[in-house]
Design a protein that fits this description.
458 residues, mainly alpha, 3 domains, 19 helices, 72% helix, 0% strand, globular
Length: 458
């Protein structure tokens, strides 16, 4: 069952509102019981066989929360914390990666006879929410909940159960037992829900139809403009679809007195990958920041350790969202983005600071950083600035794509290197001379091609 379905809009939600509103506000426990019962029914509609998994996760986190609560011996508290982490992530890893591990071992000659494994709906979200509860209790950021039904309501609350956002227990701990409901909040929640519903039905679905129509074509017969149109439509579909569900979840929570934090903040206006991840799926990125990155030391350690911390975060982020070897490429690209961001800081004139001089440059080497920066600039120009690289082989049949890419890469590499030299970066002299010669050859080739085109037009 999804929020935009007929079953939800005309049967589930009206029935819930009727049963919920019939109970007076002073019967808070009964109202919470109605919310919990409907939330479990909501999840069971997506797969009844996986309801015991959700209930098992709730029971584990409730018991581990009791063990991790302040006032108990330190060894018991740590045992409760690590039990929740191992059991929660172990269950998540089994459903997400057991099949992948078995397939790769079979290629090496090791066969594992595993039953068919289907990923339960929303397991990543309710696993991370359960861990958030235990960790917050262990740190003392939230009180330990002695009522198991309230822990179950926090984990299984239907607005954010299957598609997020990931709600911290410290955010809604007080609202579970003492939230205030009003007609004004219900109205605000209704408007936010309808806004998300419209975004899903009018924008996300429309962009999805365009993307599906494009990707259904044969790649060999697809024009470059059509491929870019399909990629752009798919990009918009992902954002509108995901943010629409977050809008509807926030609106539904507000209708029942809960205040969930925002999950998207116009991510496509970002000017860097780092800024993008501060605006996209905020609840997930902040979860990894507070529960993984900062406990590992964050940016307070050496540059090499900082890269290791970032790689760990991106590895876990990739494992959370994908299955397969794509995760390895994901981590590699994110580490390159960190290096490129440092290169951009040098290019903007921050090389004079002591921190930059002692940073990643002396660890990775200026040559690697310059190459990465040039490649990143090239990709940005091709994708964002609509650089006509794909059209050049058509205009000049004798010019193939690799030559074109080298052309732009050398041009960008020379520009970045010149800026680095002016700011005092330790660029090897031989690299400067080589790039100067290469850049001169590229400029001469460009003039020759330009003259040839003018002669052709005449």
């Amino acid at each position: 069952m999804v929020f935009s379905s007929i079953l939800f809009l005309f049967f589930f939600l009206p029935a819930l509102l009727l049963c919920y509103s019939c109970l007076p506000r002073r019967f808070r426990a009964w109202r919470n019981g109605v919310l919990l019962a409907f939330s479990l029914f909501f999840y069971a509609c997506g797969g009844l066989y996986y309801l015991p998994i959700l209930l098992c996760s709730i029971a584990v986190n409730y018991l581990c929360g009791l063990l991790a609560a302040p006032g108990r011996p330190h060894a018991v508290r740590r045992a409760g914390l690590w039990a929740a982490i191992v059991l929660g992530l172990g269950m998540l890893g089994w459903f997400k990666y057991a099949g992948f591990l078995s397939a790769n071992l079979s290629r090496l000659g090791v066969r594992l006879d595993l039953p068919p494994i289907v990923l339960p709906i929303g397991i990543s979200f309710f696993t991370f929410q359960g861990l958030s509860y235990v960790i917050d209790v262990y740190r003392g950021d939230a009180p330990c909940q002695r009522n198991p039904f309230y822990v179950a309501l926090y984990v299984a609350l239907f607005p954010q159960l299957v598609a997020g956002p990931i709600v911290r227990y410290s955010t809604v701990a007080r609202e579970i037992t003492g939230r205030e409901e009003s007609l004004s909040q219900f109205s605000q929640g209704t408007v936010r829900f309808l806004f998300g519903l419209g975004k899903k039905m009018l924008l996300a679905n429309a962009m999805g139809e365009v993307a599906d129509a494009v990707f259904a074509q044969s790649p060999a017969a697809m024009a470059a403009g059509t491929a870019w149109a399909g990629a752009a439509a798919y990009t918009l579909q992902i954002y509108f679809d995901f943010s629409a569900y977050s809008d509807m979840a926030i609106g539904l929570g507000r209708m029942f007195g809960f205040h969930f934090l925002e999950n998207f903040n116009y991510p496509y206006v970002s000017q860097s990958v780092t800024e993008f991840w501060r605006r996209w799926h905020i609840s997930l990125s902040s979860w990894f920041r507070d529960y993984v990155y900062i406990p590992l030391g964050g940016s307070r350690r050496s540059p090499a350790r900082n890269i290791l911390n970032l790689a760990a975060v991106w590895l876990l982020t990739g494992l959370w969202g994908w299955m397969g070897w794509l995760v390895v490429g994901w981590v590699f690209l994110m580490v390159l983005d960190y290096l490129t961001g440092t290169a951009a800081a040098c290019k903007e004139g921050s090389w004079s600071s002591a921190h930059a001089r002692e940073g990643i440059w002396h660890k990775a080497g200026m040559i690697v950083v310059v190459l990465v920066a040039a490649g990143a600039d090239l990709l940005i120009e091709i994708v964002l600035l609509n650089l006509p690289v794909l059209a050049l082989p058509i205009q000049y049949p004798g010019l193939v794509c690799p030559v074109v890419l080298v052309w732009y890469a050398v041009t960008e590499l020379g520009s970045i290197t010149e800026n680095a030299v002016h700011m005092g970066a330790p660029v090897p002299p031989w690299l400067v001379r080589l790039l100067a010669i290469s850049k001169g050859m590229v400029d001469q080739a460009g003039e020759a091609l330009g003259g040839g085109e003018e002669g052709h037009d005449e």
